[in-house]
Amino acid sequence: MELTRKLEILADAAKYDASCASSGAARKDSRDGKGIGSTGGMGICHSYTPDGRCVSLLKVLLTNACLYDCHYCINRRSSNVQRARFTPEEVVQLTLDFYKRNYIEGLFLSSGIVRSADFTMEQVIEVARQLREVHHFRGYIHLKTIPEASQALIDKAGRYADRISINIELPSQKSLDRLAPEKNLTNTMQAMHGIRQRIDENVDAKKAARQIVNRPRAKAPAFATGQSTQMIVGADDSTDALVLHRADELYRDCRLRRVYYSGFSPIPEPSVLLPIKPPPLVREHRLYQADWLLRFYGFDVGELLPKEDPNLDLDLDPKLAWALRNRAVFPVDINRASQELLWRIPGLGTVNVARILAARRWASLTLADLQRMRVNLKKVMPFIIAADHRPHIAQLENANLRQQFLPGPRQLELNFNAPPPTTPADATMVLSGQL
Amino acid sequence: MTTTAQIQPTFEAWRSKARELLKHGVAPENVDWVDASQTASLLAEVPAKYQIAPNASVKVPAEFLRLAANVCAHTDQRRFAILYRLLHRLALGGEKHLLAMPSDRDMHQCTMWAKAVSRDIHKMHAFVRFRLVGVNEQNGREQFVAWFEPEYRITRLASPFFEKRFASMEWSILTPDECASWDGNKLTFMPGMSRHDAPAADAHDDLWRTYYRSIFNPARLKVQAMQSEMPMKYWKNLPEAEIIHDLIASSDQRVRAMIATPERPVKPAPNNAYLNSLRNKPEKLTSPAPASPVSSP
Ligand code: SF4
Questions:
Q1: pTM metric for this prediction
Q2: Which of A9, A73, A102, A369 to mutate to test the interface with B (most CBs of B within 10 A)?
Q3: ipTM, 2 decimals?
């Protein structure tokens, strides 16, 4: 088969994986004149496809042949899609050629499962090994691992990669049993724990090493610096509460860098168990916002999703929805309130909160100051007290307050196509291609 | 008394001029900043007659210098003057906390300019596309050339990134204002060039477009989201942009085809030792998988 055709099939097969991040790698570069590439700091999105997604890595499968039968996946054994397979050398060459032209930040390699978990892992690792050891590639490498692979192989993958990931796919074993019968939640969580341990050990080892000698900078990391995972949303009947509780557990217990939420998207080879429906893009967006609130704004899942209402409001961002349920907390005085409380004001992101904290040491802040910080005044005004502003209590108590924030019908449509970044944090997230 | 500060539009030029003015305590309202590259005939520069003796040392936070470097790369005519006013207030005006005041008018303006510039730098790092032009016969290094049209004068600010990343290649990035060139050892800068000086295509562009086409998911069309991150002004130098219109136009049709596809029945599991091992060991729910025998490719 021609290389072009293989690339077509194996990129198409990989596109349902939402992860494309290339941030957070250890700092390395090629100024020693050997090899090629650099990482460190923010990853770069080298292009965007018309689905609004960032193209940062060459994201391909080594092969799309697969023994498993995950019904949301185009590569499952029941699908009639044409199968193809790259040789490790082909992927290595493609990565280098693309990298040198500045098309990409590196490689995201995954694979259908052939023969066995270990056999498949070995093939994937071989690509990374060649890139790192033969070509001294210092760009970004993200390897997908299989939870059933042996610990020794997962360790080896972690030594070549900047990031490794295992997709949890669905938040409960019940859903997996129905839609991905070969997958096992316990195995996945255990493997993630194992990876976390290695990452932690590596951080400790690096600290220890730094105290002895200054290690040369251009060295590949001894172990990946992060792991991430993906959950598919809208393929099963799991609630947002279930999804976010699972995510929260992963962040806390396995220290994941990111959980990606991927709205189940129609595939060209539909399954009888999962008939085609449009992807739940708004829900996916709300989940990302809630996820952000969990990680950076001090919210917990129970606050965002009270028991009686286990799904996020699709019309309002989750912080605003929380504020409307907890009006007694407001108004908050931006010139006095603690950081934690400022974070809870709808329309104020962490970046602007930091600015407010810095600026208010010198002057009492007014609405005009907020405007210059590009704060959405209309959104924050009902919730804050500023030097020259105090909301009418009646407004806060007004049962119609929610109505004011609802997008008009026209806007709703807009929202669906391109959910606007709501907070500066969101905007950075978009900038860094992490959404 | 007004002093004319005529400088090349670079951070270095602005900094040394500003330092000199500041040392003499020249007030911002008495300086007329002129971009030397924009004036047809160089005015004979009248050496300024300073009334105050030079101040010993001028110290500003490193953060200000970082801001100033970006602001100078902007193209707004007022940037040198406002930047100098900011510096003056910071260093001599006793407003040491200015940098923590994003709501201050001058700070706000400079921050906006700096942001626009750093966004442009970021986009340059992202959207430069190198084209292979040859191989250095002496050392075997591949040689690449790129053409890029940044919005601001950022070639110098954006180049160190390429140096770190592509140190083992030889490359040049040509832009209308200034060009950067790396020979494997040293980064040099030259005057701007025209797009005709750069190669129009690379043999790998086709493969790259194939990838771009295949990684796109027509079921999630979000054209606005794409455009806000990859504004159309950059498209003319991106090889993949050629096919954007076709991808958008055909996506509806492709999704319809998916919907029309009959659902595929479930195929039985093949007889595979590994699959059997997954199924036959329910106790595996709590213990990790034993390493399966390793087979060679
Ligand atoms: S294991 Fe499941 S999700 Fe992964 S390629 Fe195979 S069928 Fe698709």
A1: 0.87
A2: A102
A3: 0.88
